[in-house]
Design goal:
Helices cover 47% and strands 16% of the residues. The chain is globular. Helix 8 runs parallel beside helix 9. It is of the alpha/beta class. It contains 13 helices and 13 strands. The strands form two sheets. It has an eight-stranded mixed beta sheet with strand order 7-6-8-9-10-11-12-13, with helices on both faces. It has a five-stranded parallel beta sheet with strand order 2-1-3-4-5, sandwiched between helices.
Length: 377
């Protein structure tokens, strides 16, 4: 009897222990599985939510901009400006603007008859018109006061108040970075110090951005007198001004602002031909703010990166407008990229030796006056 009860008791205890162990294992594995599953769910939910949010944001951008229209007018037939056009298009596409939403005016007919482009633009009614580069004449001049916002990559300062905010329907980029004249004149002073300490300056009269009072302080810092500041209206004026400064024995340097793009009769000038003629006439050290001047024979330049500034930077400002920013909030910008460039052929012709440190650090060294160079593209 005792043995039987003991055996029964032992059997019951054994069964209890097995059940208890099974329960513990089940609970433990159940909790672990539940925890893993829950973590996976949270992780997956989080990822799915993130992807959905991203897709939603992308679709919202597309939806917001799908009815937007962009017009781009390229003012002249120039290889560098074609690069600007390409970088502009890429910038618009990066925010969801499709190619079919972009209208481009850059044919020979467009260049010859900007008044017809004005008619086309007014008929299209784009949400923004980007003019490359955007000089204060031609189509830009005709667009002043229009309901269509105009993005320009140069001389935006004449359309801004003292705080750099647009006073008209035109916004964009300043003619040059504030330290560009200082950089240029210091380089010239290093490679070709002037004997008589006098300089001459040629600049387009219609572009008031680089007035004598802006240029002179930088020259005065180097004890150089601005003897002549000649404003020119056309191709013929530019040739006459170049001859005058070349024949003035007191002038050591000839400095360029921006030269006109038209003939005296108002027709478009061959700009490359003008630059090459001017640089052929002047046999003195010359400096410029635009790369193409050095490519055509100017000695050196502190120059704007045309592709990035005239293209992408101006387009980036325009995209802010497309995304809803008020034009009155689009404060003028300085050019973001400025390069130092030299023309080796001109230096050799003038018996000027470019110091090794300047030569090796230059963005480009032009080897002739036909746009051939060593350096970056």
């Amino acid at each position: 009897m005792y043995k039987t009860n003991l055996s029964k008791n032992l059997l019951v205890m054994f069964l209890i222990l097995i059940l208890a162990a099974s329960s513990i294992t089940s609970c433990s594995s159940g909790n672990k599985e539940e925890t893993i599953t829950e973590n996976k769910k949270v992780e997956n939910t989080s990822n799915e939510s993130s992807d959905e949010d991203t897709d939603k944001k992308d679709s919202e951008i597309t939806a917001d901009l799908s009815d937007k229209k962009v017009a781009i007018y390229v003012e002249m037939n120039d290889p560098e400006l074609k690069k600007s056009l390409k970088s502009s298009i890429e910038t618009y596409k990066s925010i969801g603007i499709k190619e079919e939403q972009i209208t481009i005016y850059n044919s020979e007919e467009d260049l010859k008859y900007p008044s017809k482009v004005l008619e086309k633009v007014n008929a299209l009614k784009p949400d923004v018109l980007q003019i490359i580069p955007g000089l204060p004449l031609g189509l830009r001049k005709d667009m002043i006061g229009s309901e269509i916002p105009v993005a320009v990559a140069i001389v935006a300062e004449i359309s801004c108040d003292k705080n750099g905010l647009p006073t008209e329907n035109i916004f964009g980029i300043r003619s040059y970075a504030k330290d560009m004249p200082g950089k240029l004149y210091n380089i010239l002073n290093t490679v070709a110090p002037p004997n008589g300490k006098k300089a001459g300056y040629i600049h387009m009269s219609k572009e008031k951005s680089i007035a004598p009072e802006i240029v002179e302080p930088f020259l005065n810092d180097l004890d150089i007198e601005l003897k002549e500041f000649i404003e020119v209206d056309d191709y013929e004026d530019s040739i006459a001004a170049s001859e005058k400064l070349q024949n003035d024995d007191e002038i050591d340097w000839v400095l360029f602002g921006s030269l006109p793009h038209s003939m005296k009769d108002g027709s478009p000038a061959n700009y490359e031909e003008l630059l090459q003629k001017v640089n052929k006439i002047i046999k003195k050290p010359t400096g410029a703010f635009f790369d193409r001047y050095v490519a055509s024979g100017a000695l050196c330049g502190a120059t704007i990166d045309v592709k990035e500034v005239f293209g992408a930077q101006a387009a980036e400002m325009a995209t802010e407008l497309l995304k809803g920013k008020d034009i009155k909030e689009l404060k003028i910008q300085d050019p973001k990229k400025v390069h130092i460039v030299f023309n080796k052929q001109t230096a050799d012709n003038l018996n000027i030796e470019i110091p090794e440190d300047l030569f090796t650090s230059a963005y480009r060294i032009y080897t002739d006056n036909k746009n051939n160079y060593i350096g970056k593209n």
